[in-house]
C-alpha cells in the first residue's frame, strides 16, 4: 500500500515513479448468464493522474461501461463477478473494501455522470431537492444552506435563472439542461475522479459541444481526473489527453489523443477513424468496418478483432496479441502494429 | 403568442412558466382529481358519511344505543313522523340505528385499510428491495394467506379469535390478516420495477446508502399502485364487514352494524321491509362512494389510462 499522506493533487500529472490517482490493473469482469459466462472485460489496465482526461473509446459491448461500473462498484453482483484484477484509488484496492467504505467513496471521491439524465434523475423530486440532498446527506448541511449551495452549483453549470428553476422537476428541463443538473450533482462534493459514461450521446449535436466544454472547464477549475467513455471519436479530440480504445473487453490501443488521429496503431482504431464521414467523400459510400462485434459468450480465438481485420494473418487466429509497447506513452495489441502504423494497406 | 415572443425578455419568460407549473405526478393527479365529477361526488358522500360516523347525534334526535328508546308495542311499524324509516322487530327506530351504524362501517373500513396497507406495503418494500431469501420468505408467507378463501378464512378466524372478544377489533384483524398479501404483491412488483431504473443506479453512484435509496428513491416512485389499491380496499372492507356481521360472526348486538341490522330483519322482510332496506341502501351508497373515490384516484394516478 502506498503512503496515504501523499497528496496527489500537488503532483504534476506525469511524474514518473509516483502512483497514479486511479489505476485499473488487469481487471476481469464476467456475467453469469443462462447461456454461459459472458466475459465482458478481459484484463483491462489503465491509469489516471489528477487533472488528466482519459477517453475510453469503443463500440457497444466492448466493456467500456462495465469497467466504469466496476470502478464505481455499482455492478449487480451476481450476475456480475470480478474474478481477477485490482482497482487502486490512491493506492487502495477498492475491490477489497467493504460495501460501506465504497459508499463513502462514491460521490465524494469518485462520481459518475450517466448517459440519459432524464432517467438518471428521480422524477418525483425537484432538481433543487436532489442537488441539495448531496449536501444534506454527505455534508450534514441544513435545508436552507443546502438549497443555497444547490443554486450556486446550478449557476456554476450554467443553468439560466437557477434561482427560479431550483424548484422545477426534471421533466421540465431540456435534455442539455438535465445533463447539466446531473453534472452538478456529480461534482457537488468535489470528487477527485469523474467518470462520464457517454454524457452527450442522448443530446443534440449542438448541445454536445456545450456539455463537453462545460466538463472540460469544470475539470480545469478543480483539477479533477476524468474518464470519458464514448463511442464518438468527434467528442474526444478537444477534451481528452489520452485515449484507450477497447474492443471485445480488452484495450487494443493506448495513445496520446493526437497520435491516435494521425497514426493509429491498431486496425480497429484505423477502421473507426476511416468510418468518420468526411466532407471530401461526397458522393462516395461511407466506410464501415465489416462484420459484427464479437459475441461475448463465444469470443473468437486469438485476437478478438481477427474476423473483421484486413491485416489478419494465421497467428491472429491462434495467438492473443499482447499490448506491444510502441513508445513510452503508446501501445497496441496487434501483431502487425508496425504495418498499421506505417499505413500499409491490409 | 407571436406578440409575447417578440416582447418577452428572458426574465419575463420565467414568470408565466412558474404560474402554470405542470409539476410532479402528484400535483398532476391532484389537478385531474379536482376536475373529476366522479371524484367530487364520491368525496362529498364520503365526507358526509365520515361526519355522520363521528357525530351521529347531530343527525338523529334518538340515541340508538339507549334501549329505553325502543317501544315493543310499536315493533315493525311502518314509516311515520317519529320513525322516518319505520321500526324494527324490537320497536327501535330504524333511522337512528342506521345513522349510528355508520360508525362501525367507517372505522372497520379505515382501520383495516390502514393496517393492510402499512403491513403489506412495508413487507412488500422489503421483499422487493432486498430480494433473495427475504423475498422468498415474505412472498411464501404471503402466498399461504393468499391461498385461504376470503369469506371462509374470515369465518374461521372470527370463530377462533372472535368467540370471546367479538367486535370491531376482531373483524379488523380478520380482514387485515387476509388482505395484506395483495398489497405486498403489488408493492413488491412496483419496487422491483423501480429498482432497475437508472436513477436508482445514479443515486448509488453518487453515494446514497441502501436505506436512503430504499426510502427516498424507490418508495416514492413505487407508491402509486399501492395508493390505488388502498382507496379501493376501503369500499371492499366495508362490504366485507357487513357480510361477516350478516353471517353472525362479525359485530354482535348490542353494537350496531348495517350487516347485523339486515340479518335481524330478514325473516320478517315481506311483513316489514323498511328495517332491511334502509341499512342495505346506506351500505350500498357507502361502498359506492368509496369505489367511486378509488376509481377516480386510479384514473388520476395510472399513466397508462391517461
UniProtKB/TrEMBL annotation, chain A:
Q: Which UniProt keywords apply?
A: ATP-binding, Cell membrane, Membrane, Nucleotide-binding, Transport
Q: Superkingdom of this entry's organism?
A: Bacteria
Which PROSITE patterns does the entry mention? Answer: ABC_TRANSPORTER_1, ABC_TRANSPORTER_2
Q: Where is the ABC transporter domain?
A: 22-273
**What is the membrane topology here?**
Peripheral membrane protein
| Keyword Hydrolase in record | no
Record-linked CDD domains: ABC_NikE_OppD_transporters
Is the keyword Nucleotide-binding in the record?
Answer: yes
Compartment annotation: Cell membrane
| Main localisation | membrane
Task: Give the GO biological process terms.
Answer: peptide transport
Family of this protein: Belongs to the ABC transporter superfamily.
- Its recorded name reads ABC transporter ATP-binding protein
In which organism is this protein found?
Acrocarpospora macrocephala
Q: What is the phylogenetic placement of the source species in the record?
A: Bacteria, Bacillati, Actinomycetota, Actinomycetes, Streptosporangiales
From TrEMBL, chain B:
Topology within the bilayer: Multi-pass membrane protein
Q: Which CDD domains does this UniProt record tie to the protein?
A: TM_PBP2 (cd06261)
A GO CC annotation given for this chain: plasma membrane
Check the record and name the InterPro entries matching this protein.
BP-dependent_transpt_permease, MetI-like, MetI-like_sf, OppC_N
Q: Where is the ABC transmembrane type-1 domain?
A: 102-294
Protein localization: Cell membrane
Q: What is the protein's major site of localization? A: membrane
One Pfam family named in its UniProt record: OppC_N
GO BP term (any one): transmembrane transport
Query: TM segments?
Result: 38-59, 104-129, 141-161, 167-187, 222-251, 276-297
Keyword vocabulary terms for this entry: Cell membrane, Membrane, Transmembrane, Transmembrane helix, Transport
Protein family membership: Belongs to the binding-protein-dependent transport system permease family.
- Protein's name according to its UniProt entry: Peptide ABC transporter permease
This chain's source organism reads: Acrocarpospora macrocephala
